[in-house]
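I have been asked to look over a protein record a colleague put together. Alongside the sequence sits a line of tokens, each denoting a local backbone shape. Please read both lines and tell me whether the tokens look consistent with the sequence. Take the sequence as given and treat only the tokens as open to question. I have pasted the whole thing underneath without changing anything:
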Amino acid sequence: MFYRFQSKEGTNTIHTHLEVTKVAGGTFDFCSNMTDEQDARARALIERAAAKWPLRILHVLSDAGAPLRFSRLMERLEGISQKVLTQTLRTLESDGLIIRTLYPEVPPRVEYELTPLGRDLLMQVATLWRWIVERLGDFDARNAVKLTATSV
């Protein structure tokens, strides 16, 4: 739980049970200018990206460094079904995060690669992911305190 206070100077102060953090004024101003429709679209994109497979697929494509065929993606994504991979690739393509290239050959060849937007999303998420991983111990400690408090 945290409490936010706006000072006269425009600086936000965030109080948590652990620390007090000063945040430069205007850090979240862009949110107040969003319409309900924009907010809903942004939340939908976050939910789709945070599902089980999309970020893994983007990561595999990034690590490959070159376009990958469907079968190569299947090999590198342990536990994903063909149906789920197909659906997820379609969603990533419609969101503009990957490019699907169909080559008119016999048999047809299809390759997938990251778009600049997909690469940018992956870089932004990597920062958040690193932050979470570095603080797993803090989250675990907090959950242990909660469990101890509820069992007393």
Notes: The CA atoms of residues 60 and 85 lie 13 Å apart. The first helix runs from residue 29 to 32. The chain has a mean pLDDT of 83.
